[in-house]
Amino acid sequence: MPTAFDPHDHRACVSGAIAAAEAVSAERGLRLTEARRKVLTILLQAHEAMGAYEVLEQLDGAAPPVAYRALAFLTENGFAHRIERLNAYVACAHPGASHDPAFLICRSCHKVAETEAAAPVAGAAKKAGFAVEQTVVEAEGLCPACQGAA
Fold first, then answer.
1. Of 37, 101, 137, 139, which sits most exposed with the smallest number of CB within 10 A?
2. Do 94 and 4 form a contact (C-beta atoms < 8 A)?
């Protein structure tokens, strides 16, 4: 599975994710308003975790509630994730899909890649008789490009 650390066609990455979010929204009867679409685009273009005020700065004079409401909608509907450790947000690599992501956070360039985390946790939980409802895994380190630069 490619990540934000892999070389890729970034324009296609952004447009594909927007198209997926639009399709999921239509399927679920959700309104992907212009403000929500703009916030999602900002997150997609960054490929790194962004705080609400960083997002707000790119919303051309919008009031803070606009950014917060859009971020809440995007996270509640699986189009973005909140990175607890950084108190920031990233666009979801699998919009609308039910999954338990893990986040790989580069401490040098600040890019964030999303990958699957469920298998080890699910196995341990099943063995313990525990029903997992949500998993959040965040790992910090150096991405391949920053390792090469070090």
1. 139
2. no
